[in-house]
Amino acid sequence: MNRKQVLGWGLPLALAATTIAAAQAPTHTWDNKSLSADQRAHLVLKEMTLDEKIGLVHGYGMPGETELPESSNGGAGLTLGVPRLGIPPIQMADAAYGVTRSAPNGRYSTSLPSVLGATASWEPKSAYEYGKLIATELRLQGYNMTLGGGVNLTREPRDGRTFEYAGEDPLLAGTMDGNLMLGEREQHVISDVKHYAINDQENGRFAVNAIIDKRSMRESDLLAFEIALGIAKPSAVMCSYNLVNGDHACENDYLLNKVLKGDFHFDGFVLSDWSGTHSAAKASHAGLDMEQPNDFFYGAPLKKAVEDHEVTMAELDDHVVRILRAQFSSGTIDFPAEKGVVDVDNGYKVAQAIEEKSIVLLKNEETCCR
């Protein structure tokens, strides 16, 4: 075979190399884009080993705490994916009001007005542009999942993270945050809503126990989540640190299984807040799909629980399918993130437009008494 045959008759060198690489790239049945995300996820699942399944349901540390895998993008969280089957890592960055913890991936990220400020515009389009900008800059810095989307209601005005949330009204909060996440999802990132649920204060956040009846939850805090989920259909929900009626939120069967996955028909995956996982079997039974940022419970302990039949293989498979389905439905597999240069001028313009629209004064045009 001569040089021309190797490179492809008459093809430019670069094009020929690309053609050869494409021809050599492995193909899988789940690469068929005409299949649904659920079908593609189940096809991948059939080929996975137990160790590969366990590897997909936990993180691998975060900067400054552990030595990160070589494939890490330096963000707040990482799952390694399944390289053998063409499933890429999930690279996560905090991005509540702009991309943060972006390590050396980019020298610039737009600092947006607070979520609370953007919510004050009462304009869903502003929220959408907010999320779209975040997702665009995430992808340019090599990430495919955002850890933003806070929708906790303002119950404690001294809460240290109120600026990340969307106020005290469930209709407004759910509508604005839903549109923010919709803007993220449509840029092919895994969008995330947090912190589920009744997570309304930072002081004692690991130990506080929110005592609240089910009807009150459904008509307030959970209503905001329900509205946001209905608008954006995000791929991930982050459960919170606190306890709710005696059980940690990340191992709370009522919150995760009965309401979120049952009543709300959420088909994405639930990941823990960072170090918010407290058990293997109990959390798994309750509906937690992924531990972050490490593998203290969803690594060797979860594998042993499966081997000892304390956790069924079907239950583990459900966790895995939800993660895979999220990757397919969000487009992160078909449209992988590629690093580039952030458009600084565009970021300034979007941030200024959102800020200007947030400075509003609402009034009643009609009054009861003249």
Automatic annotation (TrEMBL):
InterPro entries: Cellulose_deg_GH3, GH, Glyco_hydro_3_AS, Glyco_hydro_3_N, Glyco_hydro_3_N_sf
Domain of life: Bacteria
Domain (Glycoside hydrolase family 3 N-terminal): residue spans on this chain: 84-325
The protein's name in its UniProt record: Glycoside hydrolase family 3 protein
Enzyme class: hydrolase
Annotated organism of origin: Granulicella cerasi
One term of GO molecular function: hydrolase activity, acting on glycosyl bonds
EC number: 3.2.1.-
Cleaved signal peptide residues: 1-23
Entry similarity comment: Belongs to the glycosyl hydrolase 3 family.
PANTHER family attached to this UniProt entry: BETA-GLUCOSIDASE
Keywords from the named record: Carbohydrate metabolism, Glycosidase, Hydrolase, Signal
